[in-house]
Design a protein that fits this description.
Blueprint: H1 13-45, H2 60-74, H3 89-111, E1 114-115, E2 118-119, H4 128-141, E3 147-148, E4 162-164, E5 167-170, H5 175-186, H6 191-212, H7 214-226, H8 228-233, H9 240-260, H10 263-277, H11 281-300, H12 314-333, H13 335-343, H14 350-358, H15 368-372, H16 382-386, H17 393-411, H18 414-431, H19 435-448, H20 467-487, H21 491-509, H22 520-546, E6 551-556, E7 577-581, H23 589-598, E8 603-608, E9 613-618
Parallel strand pairs: 6-7, 6-8
Antiparallel strand pairs: 1-2, 3-5, 4-5, 8-9
Helix pairs in contact: 1-2, 1-18, 2-21, 3-6, 3-7, 4-5, 6-7, 6-9, 6-20, 7-20, 9-10, 9-11, 10-11, 10-12, 11-12, 11-19, 17-18, 18-20, 19-20, 20-21
Length: 619
């Protein structure tokens, strides 16, 4: 098996020197900028000893390492340059198994974190989107794409991110529900996401190998498997992990297709891309746009690819375009009957229908509030709709920066990823290698989400899939630093870089007393568990007071809390517990009589969320 990395083994020294200098200065400036408030406070108070405690998670350790860099550079020694031998098939298989197993271990680690006396994985989901995906999966398990709305009282059962017009169905495209459904049958709805994470680790390892050789791929796979972002999000029932699986497989087969001119690789790239598009369409489109442009440009003027002696023929390029595009087209066509079944129109998506009816101010694009104001058709989620901020181009730029910084922090670490991005950028400009398309993908996915007013979960979940690009950049730079250390006879340089990589992981996974009292990942899990615990407390109250009896619970939500909504139901309306909205508060006698007629086989209960009281109204 060939190791496709001839042009990456010996990067141009001028580009390398410029990249290293720029990266060092830029990342040092970033670390100093983050650390400056602590330094400034110490200067004002004169308490310089305070700098030794409550360290800044993102900057203190990297800044200390920058002070040690001259020592690492000047440390004498000899390094033997070990040639990059092509890996055997067995070695590739073993590597893939180890990396995927490490990914599964990290997912299990987060699920087993102790939060408020329970493990993170024992608590119910926290986000409205997760319950919508669960409903989607349960509907698929019943062999359907939707259910009719409740025959007499549909207004009771309006649920966040669920269409509740003529049909009752999740607003989202289908791939995530298809991942969760078999996991539910297997006994744990999160296992499908764990598996997606493990497979993503394999595909991004293979993509890294295509770009920079086995060493790059190995480092990329390790970063993916150990990333706190992937470990945490694999325990959320969101669309990100199915999207990661689709995009990582797309990228690998896309690179393989260009190297081998294989139509079958092109078809598999198209399958990966459409799976991602059927998970998170905007993220998938933003990620793949530069790759699509390359395909189309080659139709007009074929360009010699890295491993080609000559440019491919137009006939070959046409075949590759067709191989990638056909699965995408067929996958998009499958949405037409699903749309028709849910919204009544093949061209109207459930996502669009939900937004038009309930939350028009949350629309994509600038001036979203001005455009959506007065367009709301139903007032069920009025407070949530009014929560939206009107997006201007200036505010959009600020949110792009916020998403970028958060993505660096959670993918691996702000300082090492800043350094990696700058090094690859300079090398790409100088050598015009394939990393340019990878950097373009990173830019594209951020620009695609620029016209959206909300920064996202953890300030970055809309650009979550950019983590794949950061893994690739970090893996390539780790290989480059390793080779510089060997070629220049500076053995401590690679250990210095490993320490720079280890610093953010220490603060993520380990607590260190007064230096940093809480591991950041556990702290984030505890914050997410705050909402999860509320859902768990409600479920426990229902189980203790109602038991196995059939009941309808009328829920009056707390208007001050926009992000806790307890309406989740069996879409067939046959569940033991039905949860209905009671936005006007406690129902009067006439309303109770009406509900008794509509639900004669159920007890009627009332839950006031603000008061935390669950009481029976009718036996």
């Amino acid at each position: 098996m060939s190791d496709p990395s001839p042009q990456s083994c010996s990067p141009c020294s001028r580009a390398l020197n410029a990249g290293l200098l720029l990266a060092l200065l830029g990342s040092w400036a970033v670390a100093l900028l983050l650390e400056w408030p602590r330094i400034d406070l110490a200067m004002e108070t004169g308490e310089w000893g305070s700098l030794l405690f409550n360290l800044h998670y993102d900057s203190t350790l990297p800044l200390i390492l920058f002070l040690l860099l001259p020592m690492a550079w000047l440390w004498p020694g000899r390094e033997k340059l070990i040639p990059c031998a092509p890996p055997s098939r067995l070695k590739m298989i073993i590597t893939a198994i180890v990396l995927s197993g490490l990914s599964l271990f990290m997912s299990h680690h987060v699920a087993s974190l102790d939060v408020h006396g329970k493990t993170f994985g024992e608590l119910p989901p926290a986000y409205h989107d997760e319950y919508s995906y669960l409903l989607q999966a349960e509907t698929y398990l019943d062999g359907r794409v939707s259910y009719p709305v409740h025959p007499t009282h549909p207004e009771l059962f309006s649920q966040f991110h669920v269409v509740n017009e003529s049909q009752f169905a999740s607003r989202y495209v289908p791939a995530t529900g298809l991942v969760i459904a078999p996991a539910i049958q297997a006994g744990n709805p999160y296992w499908g996401h764990w598996l997606c994470g493990a497979l993503t680790t394999i595909f991004i390892f293979l993509a890294g190998k295509e770009l920079g050789g086995y060493k790059t791929g190995l480092f990329v796979g390790l970063f993916c498997a150990l990333s706190p972002a992937l470990a945490l999000f694999s325990n959320l029932l969101l669309a990100h992990h199915p999207t990661l699986l689709g995009l990582s497989s797309f990228l690998y087969f896309y690179l393989l297709m260009w190297r081998t001119k294989s139509l079958s690789a092109g078809v598999l790239a198209g399958v990966g891309l459409i799976f991602a598009m059927l998970s998170r369409p905007m993220a998938a489109a933003g990620f793949a746009l530069p790759m699509g442009i390359v395909l189309l440009v080659n139709l007009i003027r074929p360009v010699r690819w890295v491993h080609d002696e000559t440019a491919p023929s137009r006939k070959t390029v046409f075949g590759l375009n067709l191989a990638v595009g056909l699965p995408v087209l067929l996958g998009l066509l499958t949405l037409l009957p699903i749309n028709k079944a849910i919204t009544g129109s093949a061209t109207k998506f459930p996502y669009s229908q939900f937004q038009e009816v309930y939350t028009p101010q949350h629309a994509y694009g600038f001036n979203n509030v001005e455009r959506g104001s007065g367009q709301r058709q139903k007032e069920v989620y009025a407070n949530y709709d009014n929560w939206a901020e009107n997006l201007t181009p200036k505010e959009a730029q600020t949110k792009v920066v916020t998403r970028l910084v958060a993505s660096l922090k959670w993918t691996w670490g702000i300082v090492p990823l800043t350094m990696a991005g700058l090094i690859v950028l300079v090398l790409t400009i100088e050598t015009r290698n394939r990393w340019g398309i990878i950097l373009a993908s990173l830019l594209s996915i951020h620009l695609a989400h620029m016209p959206y007013w909300f920064t996202g979960i953890q300030d970055w979940h809309y650009v979550f899939e950019s983590c794949l690009i950061w893994f690739l950049l970090l893996g390539e730079v780790t290989r480059v630093v390793w080779e510089i250390s060997q070629k220049s006879g500076r053995p401590m340089l690679k250990y210095w870089w490993l320490a720079m990589l280890a610093a953010p992981m220490l603060t993520m996974y380990v607590s260190a007393g007064e230096w940093w009292p809480v591991a950041r990942l556990k702290n984030e899990a505890q914050m997410m568990a705050f909402s999860r615990q509320k859902f768990a407390n409600f479920d426990n109250s229902v189980e203790q007071q109602i038991g196995e009896r059939k009941a309808l619970i009328l829920i009056h939500h707390d208007e001050a809390d926009l992000h806790i909504d307890y309406i989740q139901n069996d879409p067939s309306w046959e569940g033991q517990i039905l949860r209905g909205r009671s936005d006007d508060g406690r129902p009067d006698a006439e309303r109770l009589k009406e509900l008794r007629t509509a639900f004669p086989d159920r007890e009627i209960w009332y839950f006031d969320v603000a008061a935390g009281q669950l009481e029976r109204l009718l036996p």
